[in-house]
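Fig. S4 source data, part A: sequence.
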Amino acid sequence: MHEAMFYTQLSNNRVQCYLCQHFCKISDGQRGICRVRENRAGTLYSLVYGQSIATSVDPIEKKPLFHLQPGSTSYSIATVGCNFKCRHCQNWEIAQYPRMHEGIIPGKELSPDTIVSQAKQAGCASIAYTYTEPTIFFEYAYETAKLANQAGLKNVFVSNGYTSAEALKAISPYLDAVNVDLKSFSEDFYHKICGAKLQPVLDTIRLYRELGIWVEVTTLIIPGYNDNEEELKGIADFILSVGAEIPWHVSAFYPTYELKDAPRTPAKTLGRARQIGIDAGLRYVYEGNIPGEGGENTYCHACGELLIERFGFSIRNNRLEQGRCRACSAKLDGVGM
């Protein structure tokens, strides 16, 4: 166990957690919504600190982050647990593990300094806190990120965007990039499908941008749930209001976990969503989970020149010259381009 950050003590040994936007009030002996933070006699503990459930060396494009050190690899880690209950979660076996197994916390002991060491040995350029929601293993990620920063590695969150402002500001000096999953532009969707609210996610995306952290946004498009043009335009317009340079990844859904009544996302739906983003004024819109359709490529926002050609998570051709377009010399937005 590791004492948690971001909580206050209340009366009768209760505590209030300020790590994420749920702001759970937790009685003695109970856990928060994430099921990995427990109140013991008025002290809140993280039960997942140092308990890795998954590690992997991934292409940074898999996160997906297309504008952070393209073609590099990222050492990816996770613990069990999540502060959402998404019915379409693609990593539900580990995200919902404590909720589904009477609070059991599995994992392999892996210290922050070992993570950094293994990342460097593997030739990775960054560490990604991913697969489950990094907010719920914040203390673990925070200590690792500080060491990674000192070692010259970038740090990346792949997040649902529900981190509290206080926690995000604390880790911001060490966090280089984030991909936020903006699941819908509907409060009803967030309530029924995710067990959360929309507005905190929007506020968090804005805060990431204000803190100078590189932001990319992903929307998994689910036929019949969040694929209507009005909603997609709402997402595109919101991203534009934060920054035209923010890449928007529109990704294909496949039936999984508790949401098996919806079909796979047709390629034409992704193409339509991409065009909505481009028409709204976004510089970079990508299609995900359907390799080879051409929607994975990066084009110059100034002249339209093909700059980075991709197939899936692989880069086939990178035509950038010192981060700029060969044709018009416009600078490509991003980090380490």
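Fig. S4 source data, part B ends here. The chain has a mean pLDDT of 97.
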